[in-house]
């Protein structure tokens, strides 16, 4: 692996696992149409996936780009701030990890600002790969 690019990622933590559990408990499988069942199962496994990924260590030698949205994916301001703080902490203290703030975007950065996303990926590629 030569580099990692993350687009407004969930950073696994105990707080993230609690959020995933609480969110999933409010869901009803009957509310998902056949075409959306994969989303239901993704949400069903989110806590377990977070627990697994939380225990992995990213090698400090691998460059990382995190492109963070202005508006997080949650309706609660405190969850969005935790979401952003986790991303800031991921890059903090590492010279080869960079956080790009995508002003004016929602969690769906590729849809909101595709040109910015492409520009940042190309720049990262030229710089590190």
Name the shape in a single word: globular
Main sheet characteristics: 3 strands, parallel
Provide the spatial order of strands within the biggest beta sheet: 1-2-3
Low-confidence segments:
none
Tell me the radius of gyration.
16 Å
Number of strands: 3
What is the helical fraction, as a range of percent? 40-55%
Q: Mean pLDDT score, rounded? A: 93
Strand content: 5-15%
Broad structural category: alpha/beta
Query: What's the end-to-end separation, in Å?
Result: 10 Å
Number of helices: 5
Encode the helix/strand succession as letters.
EHHEHEHH
Task: Characterise the protein shown here.
The chain is of the alpha/beta class. 50% of the residues lie in helices and 12% in strands. It contains five helices and three strands, in the order βααβαβαα. Strand 2 (64-69), helix 3 (77-91) and strand 3 (97-102) form a beta-alpha-beta unit. The longest helix is centred in the middle third of the chain and has 18 residues, at 37-54. The N and C termini lie close together (10 Å).
Short description:
The protein has 129 residues and is an alpha/beta fold. The chain is 50% helix and 12% strand.
């Amino acid at each position: 692996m030569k580099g990692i690019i993350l687009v407004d990622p969930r950073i696994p933590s105990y707080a993230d696992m609690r959020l995933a559990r609480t969110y999933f408990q409010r869901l009803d499988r009957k509310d998902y149409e056949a075409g959306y069942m994969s989303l239901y199962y993704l949400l069903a496994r989110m806590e377990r996936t977070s627990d697994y990924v939380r225990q992995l260590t990213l090698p400090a030698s691998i460059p990382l780009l995190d492109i963070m949205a202005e508006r997080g994916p949650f309706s609660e301001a405190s969850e969005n701030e935790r979401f952003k703080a986790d991303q800031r902490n991921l890059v903090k203290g590492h010279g080869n990890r960079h956080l790009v703030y995508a002003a004016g975007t929602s969690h769906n950065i590729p849809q909101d600002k595709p040109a910015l996303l492409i520009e940042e990926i190309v720049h990262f590629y030229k710089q590190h790969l």
